[in-house]
Amino acid sequence: MEYTHQSVKDYVEAKKRGDRATTDRIVAEVTARFDARTTDGSEIVELGRAMERVSLGEGE
Q1: Does residue 41 sit within a domain?
Q2: pLDDT tens string 19-29
């Protein structure tokens, strides 16, 4: 899948590496932006899809 948000691309790369600390940080940052209404919501939707599709450590 092609991701458009850099945060989601970074999330996918970290999750494939098995880097839980980075994935948790990215989720927290994206959630904070959504909660603060500083995003249109497309970023958190794309992140949710990536969370469902990519397994932790699948790139190892």
Answers
A1: yes
A2: 999 999 999 99
C-beta atoms surrounding 46 within 10 Å: 19
Task: Report pLDDT for 58.
Answer: 84
Q: How far apart are CA 33 and CA 2, in angstroms?
A: 22
Q: How many CB atoms lie within 10 A of CB 10?
A: 16
Computed from CA positions of residues 10, 13, 16, 17, in that sequence, does the dihedral angle turn out positive or negative?
Answer: negative
Q: Domains in the chain: how many in total? A: 1
Tell me if 14 is assigned to some domain: yes
Tell me how far apart the alpha carbons of residues 23 and 40 are, in angstroms, rounded to a whole number: 21
Q: For 32-49, how does the pLDDT look when each residue is reduced to its tens digit (9 = 90+)?
A: 999 999 989 999 999 999
| Residue 26 domain flag | yes
Question: Under a CB-based contact definition with an 8 Å cutoff, are residues 20 and 56 in contact?
Answer: yes
